[in-house]
Amino acid sequence: MTRRALWPAVLIALLLLAAGCGGGSSNKAGQTGGNVVQGGILRLGTTNYIDTLNPFAYIETQAANAFNMIFPQLVQYDYADGKYKIAGDLAKSWETSSDGKTWTFHLNSGGQWSDGQPITASDAAWTINTTVKFQNGPTAVLAGSVAHVTKAEAPDPTTLVIHYDSPVGNVLAALEQGWVLPQHAWEQYATGNGKGLKTYRPEEHLPMVTGGAYTLKKYEKKGTTVFIKDPHFYGPKSNVDAVALTYYTNADAMIADLKQNQLDWVDQVPFSAVNVVKKDPNLVVQTVPGFETTNITWNSNPRKPKNRELLNPQVKKALSECVDRDKIIDVVFSGYASKVENIVGDIAIDANKDLGPLEHNCADGNAILDSLGYKKGPDGIRVVPATTGQYAQPAHKMQYDIIIPTSLDFNGDREFDIVQQGFQEAGVKVTEKVGGDSSAAYALETDDNCDASKSIGYSHYDIAMWDWVGYVDPDFQLSVVTKDQWCSWSDTGWDNPEYDKLYDEQGTTVDPEKRKQIVYEMQKMVYDNFLYTQLVEEQLIDAHRKGWDGFNTALNAYSKTYYTQPHKVG
Amino acid sequence: MRGIDFVVKRVLFAIATVFVAITLNFVLFRAIPGDAIQALRCQHCTVQFKNALRKELGLDKSKWTQYRLYVQGLAHGDMGKSLRSQNPVTHELWPAIKNTIPMVALGYVFSIILGTITGVIAAWRRGTIVDRGSVGTALAFYSMPPQWLGLMIVLFLASAVGLPTSGIKDPSLGILGEPSLWTVVIDRLRHMVLPSLSIGLVLYGEYTLVVRSAMLETLGEDYVLTARAKGLSSWATVWKHAFRNALLPIVTLVAISLGFIIGGFITIEYVFSYPGIGLAIVEAIDQRDYPILQGAFLLLALAVIFFNLVADLLYFKLDPRVTT
Amino acid sequence: MTIVEAASAPEAPASVRAGVFRHVLGQPQAIVGLAVVSVFALVALLEPVLISGDPKEKVAAVFQAPSSAHLLGTDGGGADMLKLLAAGAQISLLVGFAAAVVSALIGGSFGLLAGFFGGKTDIVLMRITDYVLVIPDVPLMVVAAALFGRSITNIILIIGIIYWTTTARLIRAQVKSVRERVYVRRARALGAGNWRLIGKHVLPQVAPLLIANTVLLVAYAIFAEMFITFLGLGDPSLISWGRLIENAFTDDAVLNNAWWAIVPPGVCVMLVVLGSTLLGQAMEDTLNPRLRVGHLSVRRFRIRPVPRTEP
Lengths: 570, 324, 311
Prior knowledge:
Radius of gyration of chain A: 24 Å
Strand content of chain A: 15-25%
Helix content of chain B: over 70%
Distance between the termini of chain B: 14 Å
Largest sheet of chain A: 11 strands, mixed
Structural class of chain B: mainly alpha
Shape of chain B: globular
Largest sheet of chain B: none
Structural class of chain A: alpha+beta
Oligomer: heterotrimer
Order of helices and strands of chain B: HHHHHHHHHHHH
Number of strands of chain B: 0
Largest interface: B-C, 67 and 56 residues
Shape of chain A: globular
Radius of gyration of chain B: 24 Å
Strand content of chain B: under 5%
Distance between the termini of chain A: 35 Å
């Protein structure tokens, strides 16, 4: 699963701000009775693979999970009482200067790299400075973690000072995306233009130097990767002796292996399999809400040459009203999803829950289209009358292609079918256009010659259906509709200077309450303009065998404890 | 002398076909709208980056120069780089080839043995219920889509026999400590059985039919009748005379049907998540990784051309009367 | 390439050909084949009458076992399997027949021209045929579909353009023998032009064989469509049997133990392939007994007629 939003630079932090009520199954780590039994091997099955062990070159989410296991982070997330909050990892505590431009971190001492060298603040300072130095080139993947950083210093082995060029609202959330690398092993690659940092493949030169809760014993890209408990870890040590992570191309086979006791744990159960897993008396299913939001993405480029009626929020609203979201939840997600309206997802900090809700009311949708004068032709398809002016277009039928990427972790074809049925009721004909994996589908949206500086791009596609991974901090999700993200993360092609100004403002607003006001306003703008029709918010479902406990589904991709806490029950 | 002529002719034809395959490969992948680079998407895939990559791959040069470079590269074993991983295509495909060959070979051998046996028996017992039964079964398997047969095996057979239906290795193998060679071999074999069986069953029906009709033809010929008249038992006649003569079309067919195996194993590997060339093709399709797709196609074409040549030469060896 | 040359077709003027078809239908396997194919063709043609509404419409819970309301249960989207199968018959047979006709047109023309004109034309055309014959067709099809595919017309064309080679060889051999027949030679001596000879004398003689061959090709084309669709390269808006099997695979039907979502589409394909193979073979055998051995061996993925020595 190469989900677009999980590409590296934006791994700001998967927000699974689950309320305890979600999902209906037990979700509290280590509270279901039985004693903690140390040791053993935790066999984990996944459908995501670790593409590389170089943090400057990774693409896949599972690689980020592996880095969490084998490298220190300054901070990570904790999850308790249905809320995420920043917790320490290598850093024990931190403070910020009164002007908000200098952050000081106090680090755990006593940690050592797998080759015996001590883990110190200068490793952290070197990693940050190197990332900053090459952030427009080889280290761009991690540039987001050091946004606005001017310099990092290590006055002593356990103190790290980071200087910023302006007060930044989400320093800790940003730093959570980065890892601390061993300077003595990596600095040889940071010479010249730094290209060596990106091309280095530690997996081809094992053993590699690690410094997290695990060392890496064996790496197979499309097979089994083995992590061994590191006894020198500075933090709470792993309960199990080893974690063996096996990649499956076929979720069906993975679930079968879990049922047959070839695996102890599966980190993501496909929606089509969840009912089967639930029925198995030897398996425990855990869910957290808000894993991803799925949407209808509308090309909102104001300079779009064709089918410009789709720029009209009224038209988009009318069509959206014809989509039966309950049916989507039922058929596509086996019930493991809920409706969502705002762009950031209900689980994000400062999610604006006053928007909508948009009801399923196709009669109203049809009335809107009628009132706009888009009459149905004899074939039942509405016709848009000719327009004049700068972007004049002739009279044409309302029929469009919808791009569906193949890399979704749910059945996109079925979601399309339901949307298609809805649109048909409104007198609009849509056809599925297979988008390929994330890269290929993006290319279809932005055009090949996309150039933000000349405002070229987003001129061919009309509609897509995709998803975004949820985040704790709304910053990233709000950024994807800015002009700055044209030809990059933007999939709507929207260009609204007023919105972009608000985006910059929230980034440097340190007062949480003030920031919230701005963030609310931004969400409302996105909602009112129908850049996306938000459909549903999916849950993340994992499953483990009885005889194990201590799993905290919500911390997937957020914390070392996601791997260190699971244990056998005695 | 005609013999050498024939061999030379067949070899030259094979070489010519290789060039046709290479050219076809080149033309097909350059005929798509735009180029492979256009479909590329990453954080730094700006217009400038893409142009640089085009230059690196020589896509800015004339088509003829590109073709020359492509052939030159191939001559040095250079099939280009994967767009996705940036690793050389050969580097990416080699492990897949190593996985595919034993699995396909196993299925192939299985189908030949089963097909020959059932074919001979059917011919020997011509017109009986045994004949009709084996021909009917053979026709049924022959008409099954390979991927569907694979799914049937997963659905109805796998759990009954307790064999794995996915991948190539037990995930818990060798987590701590190195497993013995014996354990590794057994584990590998266990993972190969079901996909191999699928390939074998898909193919065997065809062999049954061919062996049967080749046998029937020779069984009707004069020398077989003579052998019978001489008092040889019916089984001895079948074995000694008829089968030896029927071997000719069988050998040819066996070598030639490799082309079909190649069709079948792509989907069968997909069904069993068996990490071979077929699965590599499926992934490359999804990721629009054209160099990988191109490389895989060329490798398969080379394999088929090679086995066709082998079939021709074998045929010639068995029956020098052959004409071109 | 070693191959059947100058197969001796019966010297049959038009009046006898009617007898050929009667003879074909005298064979039980041909009748069975014809019956099976006809039933499916009928279902495909009557689909709009038999099925009301969108076959993809959700009618019950997903993967519901067969019941009196839904005789074959429901698929991973809660749609009625029986309706889906009927809809699938339409697309699968459409692709099968259309692609077979494309193949027959290309292969027929190649064979006719090569066999009739002989000489350089023959060498060039057969050389092309030989090359295409050796390139592995399924991978080529997959690559072509990945690069150009996804619409049903493209898929039909891709299959048709790849599967014509054996037809070309077969027709060429037949044409060569027809060309030498007494009445053809007489017509030529009387001054008939080439195209007139082809149209009036040669084509009617090879047409039955071409038709028989087309029937066989239908089976291969349906197979080919399944390959393409199973790899996710089919037209996403259409339901074919291949699509149903792909859906079952991606919806984890195996895990859900929903055999009713997997077994029926495969059985349908099997029956149609079997039917058209039986029928096509019976026709070819009757029309050209010398080819019998060769064509028993045909799953036309990469088989050529078994070579013979020249008498």
